[in-house]
């Protein structure tokens, strides 16, 4: 019997040892006993981190939707698969059973096929958090189309970049979306994006807000009439375990976003297994992850992981502050949520509000609390533990990445004793290493280093869409034979890991990864700007906020500074999205540079964070005099 459900600490250590001594045997047992395959694999694992090439369950045939839907029909047909909670609390929630989900996914898949989508085609999904979003992903998976979800808060420009990078043939969107008291014109954004996307042949539009929109002839179709005509029992396409399941874009420290490619077999096995254990999911539990499906957290832990376990998963359309700051807790009470998974930035925002918003509601159903996306600070951890968990729901601080597909370092609740701000122990099968700057692995405990992973795990991304060299250079070239995460970490006396944050030029703002380069590129396009540099500085709700140092051109010096600030943020909003706006913009006469011309961000970061007592050596700078000027005028 495989160890699918770990229940105590000794068992964790025993299974962990088994999974690292004989990873292939371990994952083979899990895959064999807990999933349905049309054909078994020829090989459990083939890997070479030099190329890099990783294949799990190669030769196996399956369809992930048969695992997430069809196989539950005999035993869980009438169980709620997706529990949809609308933005407006007075609108009725929708309980979609596994049987209904099967029908709706089949119909959507049928429509995609009718509109010419075939196995391997890319479909861009740009939808709010409504049931059709989940159904669209599953419909793609059903016919073997590769979904590329773009978070519906991204701008037209960001959307078209992503559509073009993977040559999507279709876009699925809605007329608009609700976000608290506001509505957003999603279709308008899509229309703008598509001015520049020659690969898109068809746009399917879900009606959500009932606004007047423009429909382009022979390109745009309302989806409902097509669904009404569609066939409700579409047989799933048989896929290879290593066929791509989806592309999801993440920010890099330089240049354009990276389309991380995840494949069918390994991703399914690992997300399902982590979901079961890290949330200790039991048959009748109601699980709620507050992320948006536009991020990896939503892909893995709203959709695929829960459904592969036959779980009930909540999808929430709204925001934590609407109609008031009690909304999350109202939903927990209403649906008797058992596992609640959110981000530190949400916790910090709610912790600022009156405690009445939490105390009003009955939260006694909660058994496990989760955190993801950025380091959770001690204060937020305690607030979450005291006021939401009432000190009896363990907090799982889960560290992972878009690239890793599933949770990598995390406590197992009721199994691993937790410590505030520590992601604690590597999950089953995960072999972390801390590296020093010379590239040597640091042994022992009470040490700090750069976090790498030494051995493949089933849900790791296989490549960057269209750019395998970049995949190798970004993740496999810093340290020989290791996957480099881009994060720093501390390992304490008992071997627990604490993630200390990015060591590259990615800044995490409200849990969203932002690369400095695309933001700087956007600022530099402003006609008055000569050059700029972005750094993060601590912010009590967002974790980090963005600080921009901007040098104007001589011709721009006479411009009104406040206007330039506004225009810069306007430009960033249009090109990337409002999440990348700068909180502070300081105008400078120069940027500190090394003799090789590289901007010394380390110094700028310290100044923005007001940690100027120890700036380090500035004598190697080309222009040390600008440092004093920048410090004097810091905002
Ligand atoms: C950060 C989100 C500390 C980290 C699933 C990582 C965290 C990046 C944690 C990936 C955590 C995520 N503690 N830091 N529990 N979880 N991070 O790709 O810097 O959106 O590299 O994936 O978020 O962000 P991504």
TrEMBL record:
Q: Which UniProt keywords apply?
A: Acetylation, ATP-binding, Ligase, Nucleotide-binding
Which PANTHER family would you find in this protein's record?
ACETYL-COENZYME A SYNTHETASE (PTHR24095), ACETYL-COENZYME A SYNTHETASE 1 (PTHR24095:SF14)
Q: Where does the AMP-binding enzyme C-terminal domain start and stop, copy by copy?
A: 519-598
| GO aspect biological process, one term | acetyl-CoA biosynthetic process from acetate
Q: Is Acetylation given among the entry's keywords?
A: yes
Q: Which InterPro entries match?
A: Ac_CoA_lig, ACAS_N, AMP-bd_C, AMP-bd_C_sf, AMP-binding_CS, AMP-dep_synth/lig_dom, ANL_N_sf
Q: Which Pfam families match?
A: ACAS_N, AMP-binding, AMP-binding_C
Q: Which Gene3D superfamilies match?
A: 3.30.300.30, N-terminal domain of ligase-like
Q: What is this protein called?
A: Acetate--CoA ligase
Family recorded in the similarity comment: Belongs to the ATP-dependent AMP-binding enzyme family.
Which is one GO molecular function term here?
acetate-CoA ligase activity
Which EC class is the enzyme in? ligase
* Highest rank taxon of the organism: Bacteria
EC number annotated for this UniProt entry:
6.2.1.1
What the entry lists under SUPFAM superfamilies is as follows:
Acetyl-CoA synthetase-like
What gene, per UniProt, encodes this protein?
acs
All residue ranges annotated as the AMP-dependent synthetase/ligase domain in the record: 72-462
**Can you give the residue ranges of the Acetyl-coenzyme A synthetase N-terminal domain?**
12-68
């Amino acid at each position: 019997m495989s160890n699918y459900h770990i229940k105590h600490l000794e068992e964790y250590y025993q299974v962990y040892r088994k999974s690292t001594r004989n990873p292939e045997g371990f994952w083979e047992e899990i895959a064999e006993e807990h999933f349905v395959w049309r054909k078994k694999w020829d090989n459990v694992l083939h890997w070479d981190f030099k190329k890099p090439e990783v294949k799990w369950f190669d030769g196996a045939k399956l369809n992930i939707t048969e695992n997430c839907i069809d196989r539950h029909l005999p035993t869980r047909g009438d169980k709620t698969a997706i529990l949809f909670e609308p933005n407006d609390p007075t609108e009725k929630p929708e309980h979609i059973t596994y049987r209904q989900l099967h029908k709706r996914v089949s119909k959507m898949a049928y429509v995609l096929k009718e509109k010419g989508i075939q196995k391997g085609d890319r479909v861009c999904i740009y939808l709010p958090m409504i049931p059709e979003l989940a159904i669209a992903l599953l419909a793609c998976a059903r016919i073997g189309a590769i979904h590329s979800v773009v978070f519906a808060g991204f701008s037209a420009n960001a959307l078209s970049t992503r559509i073009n990078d993977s040559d999507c043939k279709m876009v699925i969107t809605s007329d608009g979306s609700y976000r608290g008291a506001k509505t957003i014109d999603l279709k308008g954004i899509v229309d703008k994006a598509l001015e520049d996307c020659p690969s898109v042949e068809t746009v399917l539009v879900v009606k959500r807000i009932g606004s007047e929109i423009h429909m382009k002839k022979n390109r745009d179709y309302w989806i409902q009439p097509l669904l009404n005509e569609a066939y409700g029992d579409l047989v799933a396409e048989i896929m290879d375990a290593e066929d791509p399941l989806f592309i999801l874009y993440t920010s890099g420290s330089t240049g354009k976003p990276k389309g991380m490619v995840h494949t069918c077999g390994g991703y399914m096995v690992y997300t399902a297994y982590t979901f079961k254990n890290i949330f200790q999911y039991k048959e009748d539990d109601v699980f709620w992850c507050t992320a948006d499906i536009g991020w990896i957290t939503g892909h893995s832990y709203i959709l695929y992981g829960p459904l592969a376990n036959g779980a009930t998963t909540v999808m929430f359309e709204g925001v934590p502050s609407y109609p008031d700051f009690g909304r999350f807790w109202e939903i927990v009470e209403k649906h008797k949520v058992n596992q609640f998974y959110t981000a530190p930035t949400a916790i910090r925002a709610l912790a600022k509000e009156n405690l009445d918003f939490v105390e009003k509601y009955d939260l006694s159903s909660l058994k496990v609390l989760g955190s993801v996306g950025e380091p959770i600070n001690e204060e937020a951890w305690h607030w979450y533990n005291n006021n939401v968990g009432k000190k009896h729901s363990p907090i799982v601080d889960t560290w992972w990445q878009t690239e890793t597909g599933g949770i990598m370092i995390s406590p197992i609740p009721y199994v691993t004793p937790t410590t505030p701000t520590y992601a604690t122990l590597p999950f089953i099968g995960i072999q972390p290493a801390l590296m020093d700057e010379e590239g040597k692995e640091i042994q022992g405990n009470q040490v700090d280093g750069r976090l790498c992973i030494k051995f493949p795990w089933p849900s790791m991304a296989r490549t960057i869409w269209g750019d395998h060299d970049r995949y190798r250079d970004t993740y496999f070239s810093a340290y020989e034979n290791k996957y480099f995460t881009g994060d720093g970490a501390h390992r304490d006396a008992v071997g627990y890991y604490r993630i200390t944050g990015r060591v590259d030029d990615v800044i995490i703002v409200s849990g969203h990864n932002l690369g400095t380069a695309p933001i700087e590129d956007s600022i530099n396009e402003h006609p008055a700007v000569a050059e700029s540099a972005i750094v993060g500085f601590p912010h009590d709700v967002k974790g980090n906020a963005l600080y921009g140092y901007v040098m104007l051109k001589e011709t721009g010096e006479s411009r009104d500074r406040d206007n330039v600030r506004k225009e810069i943020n306007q430009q960033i909003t249009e090109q990337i999205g409002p999440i990348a706006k700068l909180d502070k913009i300081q105008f400078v006469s120069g940027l500190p540079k090394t003799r090789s011309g590289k901007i010394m961000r380390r110094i700028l970061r310290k100044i923005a964070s007001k940690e100027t007592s120890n700036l380090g050596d500035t004598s190697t700078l080309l222009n040390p005099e600008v440092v004093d000027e920048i410090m004097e005028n810091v905002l």
